[in-house]
Specification:
The complex is a heterodimer of chains A (about 290) and B (about 450). Chain A is mostly helical. Helices cover about 70% and strands about 0% of the residues of chain A. Chain A starts with a helix and ends in a 10-residue tail after the last helix. The chains are: A mainly alpha (about 290), B mainly alpha (about 450).
Chain lengths: ~290, ~450
């Protein structure tokens, strides 16, 4: 049971990371990015292509982390920029529900490309770092999980620092709070919007790459994870970064426990879905108030 | 004596008849297709019905539903299960499909109305996921693992063993759906939905119950989805969960949003292009998978009017070129019922006979192709072939005679008009020199 909770914590960290990306996007563009998971999926697939080669049945060589990781993350960031330019920017002054449908269409495009290029079967992956892991309080923590923990800490810490202590972070927050007033104050809202989506794309790429060794990787693996992230972001009212992150972690733990206890297949998806429904019915504003 | 009095006329509402005639003609042409073609056309029709509901929901009310696959699938399973368990033909369960769909829609509305703004999308997605991940695995919903086969559809003793024979029936279902949608959109409800979408506060100030209408529109979308599910069951006659994945809802959303705000023509065009393109494989499948979403992104971010907008623009340009007044931009053109043209009786009779003749020829040709017995073929040649030819000759004779008579009548008319023309009166001042100009009368 304790191992279940532990693995749930680490998966929850990734959910939290994804939720942070979603919240950051929503705060800036008022659009829920339904293609968020697919950005991470494409980046993860490119990472494995670069690192392990395109032959998916056998490992012929391993080119190592240092080349593949930055390229894949940059690719994710690039996808974020592309989405900002084609979808978020034209709809900035009038973000309707159709704007989200455009992101759904983008996710369909990404999925089509992925299925055509890599097929729908599960792909073999390798952990990012080899090693034996550590033993803490009688529980084994694998290197992948350690990496998740470390990466989450570093990334979120850096993000929080940028947002709170730098002038550029102030500009990002101002654009998120009120783009019109921010533009009047001389902030280049085009640039801040693009930077936000770049950060979000990179976050998604990192999340996808981090969680890939722990789950079955096929073209749809991030879509289901992103659903959890949507639920977590909703719990944060779509605007609170820490609320979304905390909800993601709790969701990861809760999901692991439920999957462990219940023999019904697919129960976790249903629980998450019903949780979203319950949340919206009971507390549409989310459980946590946002601070800008 | 005027020879124009001799030609009897009947007033015929040509413009109003044009659309039903086109419909019947289209179905007749479709009947000439093979079984595969008919099957695919039916699939396009089913998608059209489902898209109507989503069109009203998204384009007229500004709501969103990402779980449309569940809206269509659940009524389909309900109809199929009832049909299988009772042994009755699935054709009888149309009310069941519509009712289950409407109830599901109202249920979703109860939740979605609490959502603020963009959370609506997540809630509908969540409900769609809950249904597809849970109910689609339960055997009391989806039946045995090989899929649920319904009994052969039959109505009043007629069994429809081929899809081609059932195509007119499906066309009737599609027509009913289209007429119902048209009635809703043209009524008070449609206008209220439009106002609720554009300005809910103004609508509330005018006394329109906003929440009720928002709930109603989900119920309407659910009802149409239920009808589409019923149509799917009677057409494909086998239902399995793989037919209603969550991505189907996205496909419907693409079709509905590409249709744009307006009437059903855009929806039809969208459904035919997207689903028809997919089933008839006009372009390679993978190109279609890219083009659809890309067109959607383009429509949402730049054009924003959809097919209905494009059709409106075309109509306006066409009307301007003709010189008539441009049509109202917001609604589809009102039906032109009530305008009647006087058409001479022989023309009507002649046209009907010619068409009947061609119809007989086509039937004869179709039957000839279906049998290889020479005796039957000879019968067909005589009855359909020669009979059809005779009808065409008689009809053409009537048309020619009418044209000759009408021509003569026109000449008579012009002569009479010239004879009766009032004489130009010359003024007293100018006539001093030319008195002889007055002698043209009589």
């Amino acid at each position: 049971m304790a191992t279940v909770v532990l693995s749930g914590v680490f998966v929850g960290l990734v959910y939290g990371l994804l939720a942070v990306g979603l919240v950051v996007t929503y705060r800036t563009s008022r659009i829920i990015n339904f293609a968020y998971g697919e950005i991470g999926m494409l980046a993860a697939f490119f990472y494995f292509d670069i690192r392990l080669g395109t032959n998916t049945t056998t490992f012929t060589h391993d080119r190592g982390l240092l080349l593949a990781l930055p390229v894949a993350v940059a690719f994710g960031a690039l996808l974020g920029v592309a989405m900002e330019w084609t979808i978020a920017r034209p709809l900035r002054d009038n973000p309707t529900l159709n704007g989200m449908v455009a992101t759904i269409a983008a996710s369909l495009l990404f999925l089509t490309y992925a299925v055509r290029r890599w097929g729908i079967q599960v792909r073999t992956t390798k952990p990012l770092l080899e090693g034996n892991g550590v033993k803490v309080a009688g529980l084994n923590i694998s290197p992948s999980q350690l990496l998740i923990g470390a990466a989450t800490l570093v990334i979120l810490g850096a993000l929080a620092a940028v947002y709170r202590f730098t002038s550029y972070g102030l500009r990002l927050r101002a654009t998120a709070l009120n783009p019109y007033a921010a533009a009047l104050s001389g902030i280049n809202t085009n640039a801040t919007s693009m930077v936000t989506w770049t950060i979000a794309g990179a976050l998604s790429a990192v999340s996808g790459i981090l969680i890939a060794p722990l789950v079955a990787v096929n073209a749809f693996f991030m879509t289901l994870l992103a659903l959890r992230a949507f639920a977590a972001a909703l719990a944060g009212g779509l605007t609170s970064i820490w609320g979304g992150f905390a909800a993601g972690v709790l969701l990861g733990v809760g999901e692991a426990v439920i999957a462990f206890k219940s023999p019904i297949k697919g129960i976790t998806d249903v629980v998450v879905a019903l949780g979203i429904v319950a949340l919206v019915v009971a507390r549409p504003g989310g459980l946590v108030r946002a601070q800008y | 004596m005027r020879s124009t009095d001799r030609l009897a006329t009947a007033s015929v509402p040509i413009a109003a008849l044009a659309r039903p005639a086109a419909w019947i003609g289209a179905v007749a042409v479709c009947l000439l297709g093979s079984e595969t073609v008919s099957y695919r056309l039916g699939l396009v029709g089913v998608v059209f019905i489902g898209a109507i509901g989503l069109h009203i929901l998204v384009n007229w009310s500004g709501e969103l539903s990402l779980g449309h696959a569940a809206f269509i699938g659940l009524p389909a399973f309900a109809v199929a299960q009832l049909s299988v368990h009772s042994g009755a033909s699935p054709l009888l369960f149309l009310p069941v499909g519509v009712l289950v769909g409407a109830l599901l829609g109202v249920l979703v509305a109860g939740v979605a109305l609490r959502a603020r703004g963009l959370q609506v999308a997540l809630v509908t997605l969540a409900i769609g996921i809950a249904i597809t991940r849970y109910l689609w695995t339960k055997s009391w919903v989806i039946g045995p693992s090989g899929g649920l086969r319904v009994p052969v559809p039959s109505l009043l003793g007629i069994r429809f063993t081929t899809n081609r024979s059932m195509l007119p029936l499906l066309a009737v279902v599609v027509l009913v759906a289209a007429l119902a949608a048209r009635a809703i959109l043209d009524s008070k409800v449609g206008r209220a939905l439009s106002l609720v979408r554009s300005n809910p506060d103004a609508a509330a100030a005018m006394g329109i119950p906003v929440e009720f209408h928002r709930g109603l529109v989900y119920g309407i979308a659910g009802a149409f989805a239920g009808l589409a599910g019923y149509a799917y069951v009677i057409w494909v006659q086998q239902v399995s969960p793989q037919a209603f994945p969550l991505s189907l809802g996205f496909t419907y959303l693409v079709i509905a949003i590409l249709a744009g705000k307006g009437g059903l023509t855009g929806v039809a065009l969208s459904a035919v292009l997207l689903k028809g393109g997919e089933v008839f494989e006009i372009v390679p499948h993978w190109i279609a998978l890219y083009v659809g979403p890309a067109a959607l992104i383009f429509n949402v971010t730049r054009y924003q009017e959809g097919f209905n907008g494009a059709l409106r623009e075309m109509r306006q340009r066409f009307a301007q070129r003709r010189g008539s007044t441009p049509v109202t931009p917001e609604r589809e053109q009102p039906s032109t019922g009530g305008r009647r043209t006087a058409v001479r009786l022989p023309v009507i009779a002649g046209a009907v006979l010619v068409l009947a003749g061609f119809g007989a020829l086509l039937l004869a040709w179709y039957h000839l192709g279906n049998t290889d017995q020479v005796a039957v073929q000879n019968q067909d040649i005589v009855s359909g072939g020669l009979g059809g030819l005779a009808l065409i000759i008689v009809g053409s004779t009537l048309l020619v005679r009418d044209a000759l008579l009408h021509g003569r009548a026109l000449v008579d008319q012009r002569t009479d008009a010239t004879v009766d023309e009032p004489m130009p009166q010359t003024t007293p001042k100018a006539t001093t020199r030319r008195p002889a100009a007055k002698t043209k009368s009589q």
